[in-house]
Amino acid sequence: MQITTAHLSSRTEPLELRRVYGCFPTGVAAVCALGEDGTANGMAVSSFTTVSLDPPLVSVSMQSTSTTWPVLRQAPTLGVSVLAHGQKAAAAALAARGIDRFANVPHLTTPSGAVLIDGATAWMECAVEAEHVAGDHTIVLLRVHTSAGDPARAPLVFHGSRFHGLQEL
């Protein structure tokens, strides 16, 4: 389709914007930590992005209505795992409501309390650096304290409200 100004719309209803935003592929990350009761807490996010090398910063956007973020933000250390191709079930479990999200998701806990997803393509232990309210979300800036990655493992990709893998050109 060749775009013309006739295609542009001033419609900014959430469903239309979700459809438009869904045209931009993103990776899928998990943000997880131990809760005060010692159980793993976490969620899947598609808004993860790298921010800075010096200082080492990444960001995620958390929905204002999230019931998981208020629990996670209290943790001194958060685990961020960039999910790999083949981890669609883990992503779906971490995005679900009303279930034990970690029942069938292999994970480990670091000595600092970060929860990392086994089999991911990258892992980071982070701490909240800053939070900025932005519309119906909060942009959370995270300082990376430790990290590891396996670039040979292809990432899981979210596009058009569905999970995909990468295809090399």
Describe the structure.
With 169 residues, the protein is mainly β. The chain has one domain: Electron Transport, Fmn-binding Protein, Chain A (Pnp Oxidase, Chain A, Roll), CATH 2.30.110. The protein is built from 3 helices and 12 strands, in the order H-E-E-E-E-E-H-E-H-E-E-E-E-E-E. The chain has helices at residues 14-21, 69-72, 88-95, and strands at 26-27, 29-34, 40-45, 49-52, 57-63, 78-82, 107-109, 115-117, 122-134, 137-149, 157-159, 162-164. The strands form 3 sheets. The protein has a 7-stranded antiparallel β-sheet with strand order 3-2-6-9-10-5-4. Strands 1-11-12 form a 3-stranded antiparallel β-sheet, with no helix packed on it. A two-stranded antiparallel sheet has the order 7-8. The longest helix has 8 residues, at 14-21. It is globular. The model has no long low-confidence stretch (mean pLDDT 92).
